[in-house]
Amino acid sequence: MADINLWAVLLAAASAFLLGGIWYGPLFKHAWCREAGVDPDKPNGHPAAVFGGAFVLSLVAAAVFAVFLGPAPPLASSVGAGLAVGLGWVATSFGINYLFAGRSLRLWLIDGGYHTLQFALYGLVLGLWH
Q: Transmembrane segments in this chain: where (predicted)?
């Protein structure tokens, strides 16, 4: 971890957190709520706990991805790795769970799409800022 740019990790986590606000807000809020069976007007816990927990988990994911990439990854490689991790590992893992849980393809596309872009953003930030 000594060679990892912690500021870049923090920015990567913040970028994914902001992406989530847009993705699960104006872009797909209603579709996601409908597919997930969530009432959009009823919070699922205290907002500070939900958003705080989400940011901490984004921070952990960004830090682990930074370690995976190494201290100075080339930009194209880091973005490509982010797309591969997001789509090939995270989204497919969600897909397995969603198949067994009987979740819809639409929900998988929304969640898998977010996580694919999340890791691509991590790769972008970590590839640009060593």
A: 6-27, 48-69, 75-100, 107-129
Q: CA 94, CA 111: separation in Å to the nearest integer?
A: 8
CB 37 within 8 A of CB 107: no
Closest CA to 76 of 126, 112, 116, 6: 126
Q: Report the alpha-carbon distance of residue 12 to residue 36 in Å, rounded.
A: 27
In the three-class reduction of DSSP (H, G, I as helix; E, B as strand; rest coil), residue 99 is classed as: helix
CA distance 10 to 125: 10
Tokens representing 88 are 């090939």
- pTM summary value: 0.94
Residue spans of the domains in the chain: they are 6-128
If phi over 0 gives left and psi between -120 and 50 gives alpha, with beta otherwise, what is residue 103?
A: beta
Amino acid at 43: P
Spatial contact of 120 and 88, defined as CB atoms under 8 Å apart: no
